[in-house]
Amino acid sequence: MVAVDILKFPVSSPADTSPLEKLSVAGYDASQILAVIGKTEGNGCVNDFSRTLAAVVWESKIPKNAVTIFSGGTEGVLCPHVTFIVRSHDDAPTGLSAVVGHTKALAPDQLGTPEHAGEVAQTVTSLVKGLGVSPEQVQLVLIKCPLLTSERLETIRAQGKQPITNDTYESMAKSRYASAVGIAAALEEIAQTQVEEALKTEQPWSARASCSSGAELDDCHVFVLASDIKGLAQGHLRAVSKPMKDAIDAGVIIELLEQIKKEGGQVVQVFAKAEADPRGKIRGWRHTMNTDSDLHSTRHARAAVGGLIAGLVGNTQVYVSGGAEGQGPSGGGSLCIVYRVP
Amino acid sequence: MVAVDILKFPVSSPADTSPLEKLSVAGYDASQILAVIGKTEGNGCVNDFSRTLAAVVWESKIPKNAVTIFSGGTEGVLCPHVTFIVRSHDDAPTGLSAVVGHTKALAPDQLGTPEHAGEVAQTVTSLVKGLGVSPEQVQLVLIKCPLLTSERLETIRAQGKQPITNDTYESMAKSRYASAVGIAAALEEIAQTQVEEALKTEQPWSARASCSSGAELDDCHVFVLASDIKGLAQGHLRAVSKPMKDAIDAGVIIELLEQIKKEGGQVVQVFAKAEADPRGKIRGWRHTMNTDSDLHSTRHARAAVGGLIAGLVGNTQVYVSGGAEGQGPSGGGSLCIVYRVP
Amino acid sequence: MVAVDILKFPVSSPADTSPLEKLSVAGYDASQILAVIGKTEGNGCVNDFSRTLAAVVWESKIPKNAVTIFSGGTEGVLCPHVTFIVRSHDDAPTGLSAVVGHTKALAPDQLGTPEHAGEVAQTVTSLVKGLGVSPEQVQLVLIKCPLLTSERLETIRAQGKQPITNDTYESMAKSRYASAVGIAAALEEIAQTQVEEALKTEQPWSARASCSSGAELDDCHVFVLASDIKGLAQGHLRAVSKPMKDAIDAGVIIELLEQIKKEGGQVVQVFAKAEADPRGKIRGWRHTMNTDSDLHSTRHARAAVGGLIAGLVGNTQVYVSGGAEGQGPSGGGSLCIVYRVP
Amino acid sequence: MVAVDILKFPVSSPADTSPLEKLSVAGYDASQILAVIGKTEGNGCVNDFSRTLAAVVWESKIPKNAVTIFSGGTEGVLCPHVTFIVRSHDDAPTGLSAVVGHTKALAPDQLGTPEHAGEVAQTVTSLVKGLGVSPEQVQLVLIKCPLLTSERLETIRAQGKQPITNDTYESMAKSRYASAVGIAAALEEIAQTQVEEALKTEQPWSARASCSSGAELDDCHVFVLASDIKGLAQGHLRAVSKPMKDAIDAGVIIELLEQIKKEGGQVVQVFAKAEADPRGKIRGWRHTMNTDSDLHSTRHARAAVGGLIAGLVGNTQVYVSGGAEGQGPSGGGSLCIVYRVP
Prior knowledge:
4 copies of one chain form a homotetramer. By secondary structure, chain A is α+β, with helices and mostly antiparallel strands. Helix content of chain A is 30%, strand content 25%. In chain A, the strands form 4 sheets. In chain A, strands 1-4-2-3 form a 4-stranded mixed sheet, with helices on one face. In chain A, strands 5-8-6-7 form a 4-stranded mixed sheet, covered by helices on one side. Chain A has a 4-stranded mixed sheet with strand order 9-14-10-13. In chain A, α3 crosses α5 and α7 packs parallel to α8.
């Protein structure tokens, strides 16, 4: 059980590590950092070097066993920022507990396959156990996972193997889905035996998974957040999660915000996934995110869902990540709100 | 006084005129059309040929004195659609009245200048008068105005004159602002004598202007919508307007929606303008819409504000247009909701 | 045998049909038009409405049995223009002969399949026969073929069938490849029996195919151009073709231009296909066209190859089309030059 | 006089510093590096973090007084790579000499102004003098200069000052032009007294300037390359320069290549600038680079001119940079070829 606090700060560029000073002012030392979770201002797709830049500048400044998870894309109103997950002082209970880890490195040809999902499932299972919570207490599993670049595709072909896809952008989706299925298995939302089938049908999903792909790593960075929302928790922090049914599901956001309000709480951070409904429609009305060849659908989705969430919480420093394959119902996305209670 | 009804239908492409059949099923004839106001799925910028395509296919199917106003850009969740403004049967009062018209053609070098604003002011003033309403009863003035293409820039230079800007994309903003200032003058939100000064300081704005630029025309298409919101109106339709203060101003949308709910009303259509705050920040938090060289800020703004509005009204067929220079306060945008009462 | 002349004119927008007047000045009547082949200034991808706009405005102005082939994308230096293929006066021999036609409409689920290729093969074979030339005299087969939109994908799924791909942009490539294989079979570059296998291995290619996809049609528009390059031809026009080996194959262009120069010829038009090498490298050096998530690879390829060809022929009104799957060797593209001899 | 060698190597990403190992294999030590000049694979515009990433990873690995110049954008066929300028062993003459330096930091409101140009002029003049060559022996002055981000714009406004432009993308052009004018003055292509006037008329240009803007610095990085092309030079390297008249000026490239061939030379590297003709036409034919709101004109220009140059030299590792304001004639761009003689 690792009790954690959570703080967020805006950044002036992906290379900006000045939030470390603000963290210090807030009374925390860099050595207490478990995770740096950031939104950087690139395109959030294959050639998003804002993520790599952030990873490069941050990784030298945080503990070796801490993880970075940078999600690209601050379309629309979103503000580039970092969220710190830090150990509480003297491990005093805060109401939130967290743990971080890595899978082993995935070979390029494993990306998006049952091996990938299995590796994630095993790592998350072991982290949850180590945290000493039950799967249903976990409110969020955040994963940064690899993608296939042209070079990695060539490596696979040179070995006479088949990549999961020849399209670098599509490899991001395949990687996210395999990670989400691994999380679903670890959180017992699906059975371990369903993993292989899931990767074929692409139907099963986790309500608490949030996965983001990047070229800047070859393993998966994993962050697990748990909250005892039953009210027994000590401390001043809580997390609650419930997926959005579609990209305009203001209803579920308002529902959670009202519940938080009833508890006298204040929103600290929102972690949401967004996607263009693959059927090309939202509640029966056509959208154009899947036929816009100038702008990838993940960029559209972040902008739209980011606008909705930022409007409802009155804050643009929210973590909205694009591409919700297996992370919430199709066309919707997982949603987790961390809040402070009196 | 022309009493009007309002109907909206999705389109399958910018070339889709099948909503005419649905209009007919709803009991209206094409000859009753005053205006076709559409959202088309292009980039909403200089080279948006979806607007031109829609204009070409629609203009042969509607009365000569009707106008088309196509606004490009259905980023995020937005659904391409058309809104018909039609004369009511036998001119029976509906609660809404409307009138349409054109300015004279603007010479390329007049675009964005006091002449442009003056021409708009004169046309709108005359239309409002003809409608028989007072300026404060006007809830929305929608204008489609020209922009400068490379060819028009060359024409200006060949005449030894100076264009308002050499940047084709920026010319859209200049055109929208001059149109908005003209509306503000006509609606007595600013004095006629302030027009010239306004174009210098770029400060004054109208709360009920909605302007959109396009390469497909060289005059301005004007649509004026009035509603007697004092409750004296007969008929089942109402319009109400109040600008958004910034791009995440969910508050004002919720306020209007609650007012409508109190009246037992149901939203028919929303007309909103959106823009990237030119100061680079929203409520003090940095946004990246003005430094994203891959994606123009108007596309970002439409996606974000479109996501917020569609979420709150539960409908993606809303008219959200990008570039709100002088159309609502800086960083915000005008907002008009048309609704049906029992 | 239909003897044809060829003329090209710039356009000021996709809606510009004023070249008809120039055609008239050049002594030709619209009734002599066999084909209007144009480059329009959209993105050349799924949501390129510049193509549809051009098709709409042109199709009402040309003979019923003439075809339009609009290829989107004039990236870089390329000039939007139209090329007319017109019957010569009194069918006087010109050195070039041509014929146009259509396949039957393809069902959405047939796109990219052996049925699609077979349909093309049959149509081209029959057109070549009708033209009275041998397959090896054919210098160019230009095809405009359909793609899968979100709506067409839904139609397929609603029928319980599988589309060739779920990605609208990728469907363009699948459609081009099936068309190219059909051409290869008709020109006897591959055996008819190899068609099905070709669509699996995606290896075989035609040296004289040029295929372009669009949402604006559901059949294939076909244009066949033949030239007797053996020197026996009467008339003042010739066509020669030889594929580019890669996207920087200046050598083959220079070789053809020198051959033309030797004959005292002058280039009238160039028809070229361009693509990003799918292996991610050109002559061993990495390119970034397949990992650029802001800009589709076909746009990159048109810009680069267009720059090379326009530079070498000293003219930017050239037909360079993106996506050369099966149209020339992998990473290269077919190339056909039409020229005038004394 | 600093005799230099020049070597180039491809990179696998902007973070790839493995060329250092290849440099070592080639017999050079990192301590001999004067400049690292790279093409990185971002958009080359305001939010190109590939440049910043490259600067971050390289600056810790090269001597303190060496400079980095990273130009973003490898559109089309271009290969991301780095070019090393290294001191020759024991300062043995190579035929090429070079020197690097910095201007002082420019305040945001100085960007694009006569102060900016003056500061560049002074720095380049002093570097040329220090190099011990005459201005006409200088074949290339390469500059990396700052741009205005939203934050820098806010800083200026907060001080009650006026930025040169409110548009972050346009600030790149303004910065390049002021740098180019400074170079022109230092190389005596224009008089020092013409600087202020030049910034107003935007007419004068330098034939040997190559300037590139970036958010990653606030001073200008300067690299000066001289060659004694009169044949008196010892050593095996030469540089020659002559600007392209327009973006399809294959003629001048072929002319230089033939001259090099006559000397038995082999091309080592090409440094070229490219731009969209601001008049909207090339040799009278319309181009669409200035009206494409999806893709900035500098990206178009790099792709097209990169395709032409790479085709003619048969190598995609060439330095083609976009935005040639004042760097060669309007619509064209400066061009410098470094080659090896027997």
